[in-house]
Specification:
Distance between the termini: 21 Å
Number of helices: 3
Strand order of the largest sheet: 1-2
Structural class: mainly alpha
Helix content: 40-55%
Largest sheet: 2 strands, antiparallel
Length: about 80
């Protein structure tokens, strides 16, 4: 079974269930955005709302590989 959109949630659930097989190469990357930062970005975006609906990347701009993320989760859990 692959991961849904919530990689960290799914991975934590699997690690706690002692399911240690993960799919992919580990080289896949994601650029993370904290929920609090997303909320703050939405509040600031209100002033820039328009029918053109501009797109902005609110994440850090620093991709993290699945391997790095899972390694950190294993260490923490």
């Amino acid at each position: 079974e692959g991961f849904g959109k919530q990689l960290l949630w799914d991975a934590c659930r699997r690690i706690r269930a002692d399911e240690t097989t993960f799919f992919g190469t580990g080289d896949e990357t994601r650029d993370w955005l904290h929920a609090g930062d997303a909320a703050a970005l939405l509040v600031r975006a209100i002033d820039h709302a328009s029918p053109q609906c501009p797109v902005a990347n609110g994440a850090a701009g620093e991709p993290v590989s699945g391997r790095e993320g899972l390694s950190e989760l294993f260490a923490l859990l």
